[in-house]
Each structure stands twice: as C-alpha cells, then as structure tokens.
Amino acid sequence: MTATVIDGKAFAARVRAQVAAHVARLRDEHGLVPGLAVVLVGEDPASQVYVRNKGTQTVEAGMQSFEHKLPADTSEADLLALIAELNADPAVHGILVQLPLPKHLDSDLAINAIDPAKDVDGFHISNVGLLGTGQKAMVPCTPLGCLMLLRDHHGSLAGLNAVVVGRSNIVGKPMAQLLLGDSCTVTIAHSRTKDLGAVCRGADILVAAVGRAEMITGDMVRPGATVIDVGINRVERNGKLRLVGDVDYASAAAVAGAITPVPGGVGPMTIACLLANTLTACCRAKGLPEPDGLTA
Asked: What Å distances lie between residue 20 and 24, 64, 121, 223, 276, CA to CA?
C-alpha cells in the first residue's frame, strides 16, 4: 500500500483564496476591512520569519496588517498597555502575541489580556473553555487546519476512532476537542502511555503532535489509517539540517491510507487558518454571516 499524500500546501492556498474572496466582498458591500495585529517582543529569529510571513499573507488576502515589534527588555506593563490599546482599536479584529516571549514576561498573563473575541490564536482561557464545552469559540489555528484537512479527505468523521499523540494546550488538547465535536471516538496518548504502539494501531485517524522527531513508526500505524503529522523537528542528516515530522514518513506511508508530509502538510495550514480566524472574528464583531467552511 502506498498512502495518498494530503497536500496541505495546496489546500492552504485554497483557504487563503477563499478568505481573500470573502474579504473583497466585505470591503465592497460593507466598506469593512479585517485587521490583524501581531505583537513580537525580542529578536527570536524563527519568530521574526514567522511574523514576516504572517504579515505578507495578511496583506495578500486584502486585510490590514499591524505589526508591533518591541525590544526584548519590554516591561510587562508596557506589553499589557499595548494589548489594551489593540483591544480598543476598532480597526483591529484579531490580535496575536507571538510566542515564545522573553523569560521575564508571563505568557499566560499576556494571552489572557487579549479580548477573547480578538484572540485569533484561540489560546485565551475563555476560548479554551468555550471549545471544551462545545460552544462557539476562536479555535487554535493548527488544530483547526488539521480538522479541515481531515474533513476534506474523509467527508464525515462521525464514528471514526481518533488517537491524538500529544497533550499540549496548543495542539493536542484542542485537537481532541475538535475531533469529539465531529463525533469521533477520541483517545489522547502521550510519551507515558503504556503500549503506545497498540493504542496507535487502534486509530482510523492518527494525529502526531508530540514534538519528537520520527517517534511514530510504520509498525504503530493501522493499515489504511489517516496520519496527520503536526511535528516540525530539525535534525542533522549527512551534515545537513533537515525538517522531519513526529512520524517516520517512509515507514508510515507504506502502511497508511493517507498521510501529511513534512514540510508541506499541516504547516502551511496554520497561517491560512490564522487568516480565516481573523475574518471570522471580523464577521462576528459586526454581526455578519461567517464564511462557510472556515470554522469548526
């Protein structure tokens, strides 16, 4: 068996095009332009690249991009004051504080200072609670992207057995909630799960979000299962750094029915869903219909 490759890069391009089309309608019919504000504190190179990509794609989708770059020694009071300004700014519909923050800043305090309606990362405790109780919430971007890929591939997910390997607040836990919302039978596994391989082999849908390079191998995959690899790990091979996922792609692809590659799978969906969440936040703020297919 050779697995079908789930092309996240191509799917993300379609999501961005759908967002751009809806943004154009908002502008033409309502004179409304969604705005995304990104706050970057410090000089972390990976964060700088990520913020730059977010800004570029925001503008390409027809939205306003507001970038706030603060020095690494920014005080907690100054960061919270900026967030309060953005909360009150009617041109800003989505706010994202880029993580990680410098060690002297409290990430939870900063995230929970964001207006939950503008929390397009879906990390605010109010959105976590709303998602966990099945209510309308802003949903974390990476799990939302995974859900979109799964819905596109399977259609209905009802009744499927899903195993999520990883219990982070950013991916693992919200991913499990989203799958429950689509009527899957869900198991959360992790590094201390007894006989992890046996648990994984029971999955129709296997989501790897554990943060360990190539931890999930082909003998842990049920034949025909769909494998969603959230991991992005840099490893050295033959003197060169390369990106690999949490799944050993070659062995898993020989068994699975479908699989996301790394790179080019889940990764491109994260920014696409950030744009979708910003659009959704704008529509909700103005009492307008939400875009079809871009929410959980």
From this structure: 6, 12, 19, 38, 9
